[in-house]
């Protein structure tokens, strides 16, 4: 490889490596809740006010809100199924969606 090509490859790599953005703090995407709503509930739980505290404790005990929840999915077909009761992975899909939201 010629010196000119090596230099250009080096400059490109140097620029790519050092122009990577710094890791930013996590910003909750909101989904169904605003940051203001999350902060409100957090303050109520911290103050141990009901019904927020018991609701939070119930959420913590729920298996789908666990860090160790194992994703069931990766299905090519998901649906309600037919009249014979074939749910085509609907219950597994619902559990994975709940875990993602919790």
Unreliable segments of 5+ consecutive residues: none
- The share of residues in extended strands comes to under 5%
The number of distinct helices, counting runs of at least 4 residues, comes to 4
Indicate the multimeric state.
single chain
Helix content: 40-55%
What Rg do the Cα atoms give? 24 Å
Structural class: mainly alpha
Distance between the termini: 53 Å
User: What pattern of helices and strands is seen along the backbone?
Assistant: HHHH
User: Describe the biggest sheet?
Assistant: none
- Overall mean pLDDT score? 82
User: Tally of extended strands?
Assistant: 0
3D shape? flat
What can you see in these coordinates?
This protein is mostly helical. The protein has a domain at 30-67 and 89-102. It is built from four helices and no strands. The mean pLDDT is 82.
Brief digest:
By secondary structure, this protein is mainly alpha-helical. It has helices at 3-18, 35-46, 52-61, 90-101. The chain is flat.
Q: Can you tag this structure with a few keywords?
A:
single chain, 49% helix, flat, 0% strand, mainly alpha, 102 residues, 4 helices
Sequence-ordered SSE layout with sheet pairings:
Layout: H1 3-18, H2 35-46, H3 52-61, H4 90-101
């Amino acid at each position: 490889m010629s010196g000119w090509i090596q230099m250009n490859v080096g400059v490109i790599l140097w620029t790519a490596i050092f122009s990577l953005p710094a890791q930013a703090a996590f910003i909750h995407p909101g989904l169904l809740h605003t940051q203001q709503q999350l902060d409100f509930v957090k303050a109520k739980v911290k103050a141990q006010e009901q019904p927020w505290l018991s609701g939070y404790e119930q959420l913590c005990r729920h298996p789908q809100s666990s860090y160790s929840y194992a994703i069931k999915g990766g299905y090519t077909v998901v649906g309600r199924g037919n009249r014979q009761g074939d749910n085509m992975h609907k219950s597994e899909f619902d559990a994975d969606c709940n875990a993602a939201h919790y």
